[in-house]
Design goal:
The complex is a heterotrimer of chains A (302), B (419) and C (282). By secondary structure, chain A is an all-alpha fold. Chain A is built from 13 helices and 2 strands, in the order ααββααααααααααα. In chain B, helix 1 packs across helix 2 and helix 5 crosses helix 12. The N and C termini of chain B lie far apart (58 Å). Classes of the chains: A mainly alpha (302), B alpha+beta (419), C mainly alpha (282). Chains in contact: A-B, A-C, B-C.
Chain lengths: 302, 419, 282
C-alpha cells in the first residue's frame, strides 16, 4: 500500500519532470543570464543614481546628476564620436576587404587549402601582442611602415602621434586582425551557393561580373549584413588597442567610450559616475543594433 | 660565496631590538615588480636570517595598475596585506582616507625614533598633513629624476656642459640635431597623462611656477606660459613620435645613441647606460640634476614609501620589518647588490657606493633640491587632465594659449570639486 | 569567379595567384616581425639598422619567458579558465538550444530568451564590469579563476546558444522519438542519440568560445589581483613595464601563447569552416 503510493509519487514526479523538461533544460543557462547579465544591468542603473566614491567610501543619492554631468562633459561626447568613427571605418574596411578576399579564395586554385589557414593567423594572436608589433612597425623614426613610405617617395607619417592619423592607424590594425574573420564567414556563405546556378548562368552566356552581381551578391547579401552586424558590435567595444597603443592620445583623439568608463571606474574609482556612463553606452549600442537588426531578427527566426 | 657570508654576517649584525610574539608569523607585502622587487626580496631574505619565525610573502605588481590594485585591496578592508609599497603622489589620496596606519604609536611601542638620517624631502612625503603632520610611511626607494646628456657630443660641438639653464638646453638640442645626423637634440616622454606631466613639471618648476599655487590653479600665469614655450621648443628637436613615448621608449632611444639629451632618467635603470650588453653609449652619458631657469634646479621626486595598511592584524611585526629595511646597513646592501637608490643622506656620501655609482653626489643634490608633485587627493585626475592638454599642445591640436586656458579651467574645476 | 570556373585562362590564373600571395604576405608580415623580434638580441633590436633576419639568433627570450617569468603558469591559468568557461557554456548552452528547438514555450518565453542572448552579444563587456566587480565582492568570491569563468559566460553563452541552435534544428526529431518509444527517457535519448550527432556543432562553438576567452583582456585586467592569477594577455601586458619594454620576451610570449590555440584549430579544422557558416557565427 505504502509502497505503491511511493512508486506512484515517483512516477508522478517523473511525469511532472518530463512535462516541464523544456523549462528544466533551459534553467541553467537562464540562471547564468540572470546572475551575470540581468541583475548587473539593473544594479548598474541603481548605482548610477548615487555618488559612489570607492576610496573614501561615500555613497549618497544624487538622482540624475551623474547623467547631467556626463552629457555635459566634452570628453565623453568626444569619446562617443571617436568610437562611432572607429566603428564605421573599421567595419567598412573589414567588410569590403573581406568580401573581396572571400571572392578571391572562392576561386579554385592549387595551394588554396594551404594558403587559407595562414590568412587566419592574425586573429589567433592576443591583441596585446598584435598591438606591440604594430607599435614597432609604426614608429615614426625607426619603424618599418615609414621606411616603406620613404622608399616609395612619400614623407614619414606620425602614425600614432598625429591627430589626423592616430585613429586611422588603430583602424588599420583592427582591419589587419579581423578581416580574416569576415573572409571566413563570407567564404562559408559562398560555398553554400550550389554550382548549378552558375552553370545555368554560363549556359545563358552571363559574364563573370554579371554572375557576381546577379547570383553571388544577392545570395551573399544576408551573410554580409550579418557579418556587418557582428563587426559593428565588436568594434564598438574597442578598448585593448587604445589602452595599449595610444592611451587615448594624441590629446583625446583616440579616446573611446570603453576607455572613458575604465578610467572613471578603475582609476578614479568614481563608480556611480562610471555606471551612468555604462548605461548611456548600453542604450547607445542597443538602439544602434536594434535599428540595424530588426529585419534580420525576423529572417533568423523564420 | 664571500658576498653571501658577508651578507649573513651583516644580517645578524642588524638585529633589531624588539621581541615579538612567539611562533611563526606570515606577512603579505604588496609592491612593485622589477628592481623594486629584487631589492625588497633581498631585504626579505636577509630578514629571514634574523627572524626565522617571520615569513614575508612578496607580491610584485607592474606599475601600471598597482595603485588600482592597492585601492581595491585596502578599501575592501579584508586585511590581506600587511605592508604596502607606494608611489609618493598616492599618499595624498590614501592617507586622508585613513587607509594606512599612523606610525607614531608603533614607534613608541617599539621604543624607537624616526632616524634623522632620512633625506628630509623624502621622509616628508610620508606625512599627512604634508609636510609636518603624522608620519604614515617611510621612504625606502630614493628615486629622483636626473637629466642626462651625451658628454661626447657636447664636447664635439663645442658646447659648454652641463647646460646651465633650460634656454641652454634648447640651444644645445638645436645645434646637435642640426650637425649630428641620426641624432635627435633631445628625447622625453610625451604620452598623455603621467608621462608628459613628468617631463614637463621640472621645466615648470625651474621657471618658478607650479600646478597649484596657494590652493588655486597656477596654470594661468607667465611662468606656466614660459615653461610651455620651452617645452614646445624642445619638441621640435625630438623624435617625431614623442607624443606617444613612454619611459621605456625614452630609455631605448637614449641607449641606442639616438638622442643627445634625455630630459629625465631614473636611478632604477641608470646602471644600464654603462652596460655594453644593452647600451651603445657606454661611458658617454653624463648625469646631473635638472637645469634651473629663473628658479633653481627642480627635478621631480619619485620616492617610494613603505606603509602598513590600517586593516593589517600584524602591525607590530610589519613595523619591525619596516625599521629593518630602512636601516643604513640594509639600505646600503640593497644599493650595492641591486642598485636600489637609498633614502638616507649618509649613504650618498659613502665612498664604496660612490665608487660604484659615479652619479651619487649628483643624485643626492637632486634629492635635496627635488620637488614633490602637488599634494592633493585628486592628483590622478588632475595629472590626466593636464597631461591630455599638454599632449594636445605637443601634437598641435591646441595652440599654447588655448592649452593654458583649458588646463586652467579644468584644474580650477577639479579643485572646486575637492572642496 | 565561381568555384565552377577553374581559371583556365593563364592570365587570370596568374592574377589570382599574385593576389592570393599578396594577401598572405600582408597577413603574415607582422607575424614574421614578431618571430624576428623574438629571436633578436636586445642590442640588435635597438640598432637603427632594421634587420629582416636576426643576425645572431638567440633563444634567450624564450628561456626568459618560460624559466624566469614562469610563463607556463600563466598559460595554465589561461587554459584552465578558458576551457572551463567553454565547457560550462557548451553544457548549459546545448541544453538550452535543445530545449528551444524541441518545445513550444508559453508567453513567447523562447523568443524572449533568444532575443536576450542576442542583446547580451551586443553589450560591450566594460558595461557590466562595475556591477560584476561589486557583486563578486559582496558574494565574497575571491577566487579569480572562478570569477573569470563566470564573467566569461557573458561572452561565450550567447555564442554557444546561437551557434548550437542551427545544429540542433538539423537533427530530425524522429530519431529521439523512436528511441523514446523504445522506452528511453528524454534525457537518455538526448545523451545517447542527439549529442553524438551534434558533435561538429560543439566543436565549432567550442573553438569560438576558446578563441574569445583565450585572448580576453578587459575582464582579466580588472579581476586578476596578483601575478599568480594572471592570464596570458595580462602577463604579456606586464612585459611593457614603466622603464622598459621587453620586446623579445613579449614576442616570444605571444608566439608561445597562440601555439595551443593554433594546434587546437588545426585539430578541429574540419568543423571550422562549417562553424563559420552563417547560422554558426552568433
Amino acid at each position: 500500500m505504502n509502497k505503491t503510493r511511493t512508486r506512484d509519487l515517483i512516477a508522478r514526479t517523473q511525469i511532472g519532470f518530463e512535462r516541464r523538461i523544456h523549462l528544466w533544460l533551459l534553467l541553467p543557462a537562464a540562471l547564468l543570464f540572470l546572475l551575470l547579465t540581468v541583475f548587473p544591468i539593473i544594479y548598474n542603473g541603481y548605482i548610477s543614481l548615487y555618488h559612489f566614491a570607492f576610496i573614501r567610501r561615500v555613497f549618497s543619492f544624487v538622482g540624475m546628476r551623474n547623467y547631467s554631468v556626463l552629457l555635459q562633459d566634452r570628453l565623453f561626447i568626444t569619446s562617443i564620436l571617436n568610437t562611432l568613427q572607429f566603428v564605421l571605418l573599421a567595419t567598412a574596411g573589414e567588410v569590403v576587404l573581406g568580401t573581396a578576399l572571400a571572392l578571391l579564395f572562392n576561386v579554385r586554385f592549387r595551394g588554396r587549402r594551404a594558403l587559407l589557414p595562414m590568412t587566419v593567423l592574425p586573429m589567433m594572436l592576443p591583441t596585446t601582442v598584435v598591438c606591440a608589433v604594430w607599435v614597432i612597425l609604426y614608429d615614426h623614426d625607426f619603424g618599418f611602415m615609414n621606411q616603406v613610405l620613404k622608399a616609395v617617395g612619400l614623407g614619414p607619417i606620425r602614425w600614432l602621434s598625429d591627430p589626423r592619423f592616430a585613429l586611422g592607424s588603430l583602424v588599420l590594425v583592427d582591419i589587419w586582425q579581423w578581416t580574416p574573420f569576415v573572409l571566413l564567414v563570407l567564404l562559408a556563405g559562398l560555398q553554400s551557393i550550389p554550382d548549378y546556378l552558375y552553370e545555368a548562368a554560363q549556359i545563358d552566356g552571363a559574364t563573370p561580373l554579371q554572375m557576381i552581381r546577379h547570383i553571388t551578391l544577392p545570395i551573399l547579401s544576408f551573410h554580409i549584413r550579418f557579418v556587418i552586424l557582428l563587426r559593428l558590435i565588436d568594434t564598438f567595444r574597442i578598448f585593448d588597442k587604445v589602452y595599449t597603443m595610444t592611451g587615448g592620445g594624441p590629446g583625446y583623439t583616440t579616446e573611446t567610450i570603453s576607455l572613458y568608463i575604465f578610467r572613471e571606474g578603475f582609476r578614479y574609482f568614481n563608480l556611480g559616475y562610471a555606471a551612468a556612463a555604462s548605461i548611456v553606452m548600453l542604450l547607445l549600442v542597443l538602439s544602434l543594433s536594434i535599428l540595424y537588426a530588426r529585419r534580420m531578427w525576423r529572417e533568423i527566426r523564420a | 660565496m664571500r658576498t653571501r657570508i658577508a651578507l649573513i654576517a651583516l644580517a645578524l649584525m642588524v638585529m633589531s631590538g624588539t621581541t615579538l610574539a612567539e611562533g611563526p608569523v606570515r606577512l603579505v607585502f604588496m609592491g612593485r615588480d622589477g628592481v623594486y622587487e629584487s631589492a625588497m626580496r633581498l631585504a626579505i631574505s636577509l630578514y629571514k636570517m634574523v627572524k626565522p619565525e617571520v615569513t614575508i610573502e612578496y607580491v610584485g605588481l607592474p606599475w601600471a595598475g598597482l595603485r588600482e590594485k592597492i585601492v581595491i585591496e585596502l578599501a575592501e578592508g579584508r586585511g590581506t596585506f600587511d605592508l604596502i609599497l607606494l608611489d609618493d603622489p598616492w599618499t595624498a589620496e590614501f592617507l586622508p582616507a585613513g587607509l594606512l596606519e599612523p606610525l607614531d604609536g608603533l614607534f613608541a611601542a617599539a621604543g624607537q625614533e624616526l632616524s634623522s638620517d632620512f633625506v628630509p624631502s623624502a621622509v616628508a612625503l610620508g606625512r599627512w598633513p604634508y609636510p609636518q603632520g603624522t608620519q604614515y610611511a617611510l621612504p625606502v626607494v630614493g628615486n629622483v629624476q636626473l637629466f642626462a646628456y651625451r658628454v661626447d657630443l657636447f664636447e664635439k660641438h663645442g658646447l659648454s656642459h652641463p647646460p646651465a639653464t633650460w634656454a641652454d638646453v634648447v640651444e644645445a638640442a638645436q645645434v646637435i640635431q642640426a650637425r649630428e645626423p641620426g641624432v635627435f637634440g633631445n628625447v622625453f616622454r610625451g604620452a598623455p597623462g603621467n608621462d608628459i606631466v613628468t617631463s614637463f613639471l621640472p621645466i615648470l618648476w625651474a621657471h618658478g611656477g607650479d600646478v597649484i599655487v596657494d590652493g588655486k590653479s597656477g596654470v594661468d600665469s607667465a611662468e606656466f606660459r614660459a615653461a610651455l614655450s620651452v617645452f614646445l621648443a624642445l619638441a621640435r628637436f625630438a623624435p617625431g613620435d614623442v607624443g606617444v613615448y613612454k619611459a621605456a621608449r625614452l630609455r631605448e632611444v637614449l641607449l641606442a645613441g639616438n638622442a643627445a639629451m634625455a630630459l629625465e632618467v631614473w636611478p632604477a635603470w641608470i646602471p644600464e647606460l654603462d652596460d655594453p650588453k644593452v647600451s651603445l653609449v657606454v661611458q658617454k652619458v653624463q648625469l646631473f640634476p635638472h637645469p634651473g631657469q629663473v628658479a633653481k634646479s627642480a627635478p621631480m621626486l619619485g620616492i617610494w614609501l613603505l606603509g602598513i595598511p590600517a586593516t593589517s592584524t600584524k602591525k607590530a611585526e610589519a613595523f619591525d620589518f619596516l625599521l629593518y629595511v630602512t636601516s643604513p646597513e640594509i639600505q646600503k646592501v640593497m644599493a650595492l647588490h641591486v642598485g636600489n637608490p637609498p633614502t638616507l643622506t649618509s649613504l650618498y656620501r659613502d665612498p664604496e657606493l660612490i665608487a660604484r655609482y659615479r652619479w651619487y653626489p649628483a643624485q643626492l643634490e637632486a634629492l635635496l633640491t627635488g620637488v614633490a608633485r602637488p599634494r592633493t587627493a585628486a592628483w590622478s585626475r588632475m595629472e590626466d587632465m593636464l597631461g591630455g592638454f599638454l599632449n594636445e599642445a605637443l601634437t598641435g591640436i591646441r595652440s599654447p594659449e588655448d592649452t593654458v586656458r583649458a588646463a586652467h579651467d579644468a584644474i580650477t574645476r577639479i579643485l572646486a570639486e575637492e572642496r | 569567379m565561381s568555384s565552377s570556373s577553374r581559371g583556365r585562362q593563364p592570365l587570370k590564373r596568374i592574377l589570382v595567384y599574385l593576389l592570393a600571395f599578396a594577401v598572405v604576405a600582408v597577413a603574415l608580415f607582422p607575424i614574421w616581425w614578431l618571430v624576428n623580434t623574438s629571436l633578436k638580441t636586445p642590442l640588435e633590436f635597438l640598432s637603427p639598422h632594421v634587420t629582416f633576419f636576426p643576425r645572431a639568433p638567440t633563444l634567450e627570450h624564450y628561456r626568459d619567458v618560460l624559466v624566469e617569468r614562469g610563463f607556463l603558469r600563466f598559460l595554465g591559468n589561461t587554459a584552465l579558465v578558458s576551457a572551463a568557461a567553454t565547457i560550462l557554456s557548451l553544457l548549459t548552452g546545448s541544453l538550452a538550444a535543445y530545449s528551444l528547438t524541441r518545445f513550444r514555450f508559453p508567453l513567447g518565453l523562447d523568443a524572449l530568451f533568444l532575443l536576450w542572448a542576442l542583446v547580451i552579444r551586443t553589450i560591450p563587456p566594460i558595461v557590466l564590469v562595475i556591477p560584476l566587480f561589486i557583486m563578486f565582492r559582496e558574494l565574497r568570491l575571491t577566487n579569480v579563476r572562478v570569477i573569470l569563468i563566470l564573467a566569461y559566460q557573458v561572452y561565450t553563452l550567447p555564442l554557444a546558444i546561437w551557434m548550437l541552435l542551427g545544429f540542433f534544428r538539423e537533427i530530425p526529431r524522429e530519431l529521439e522519438e523512436a528511441a523514446m518509444t523504445d522506452g528511453a527517457s528524454r534525457i537518455q535519448a538526448l545523451v545517447r542519440i542527439v549529442y553524438p550527432l551534434v558533435t561538429p556543432g560543439l566543436a565549432a562553438a567550442g573553438i569560438f568560445c576558446l578563441i574569445t576567452t583565450w585572448n580576453e583582456f578587459t575582464y582579466a585586467l580588472i579581476f586578476a589581483r596578483i601575478p599568480a592569477d594572471f592570464t596570458v594577455p595580462i602577463a604579456i601586458a606586464t612585459f611593457i613595464t614603466e622603464y622598459r619594454t621587453l620586446w623579445g620576451s613579449l614576442a616570444a610570449g605571444g608566439i608561445l601563447s597562440s601555439l595551443p590555440l593554433l594546434l587546437f584549430t588545426v585539430f578541429v579544422q574540419r568543423h571550422l569552416l562549417r562553424g563559420f557558416a552563417l547560422r554558426g557565427t552568433f
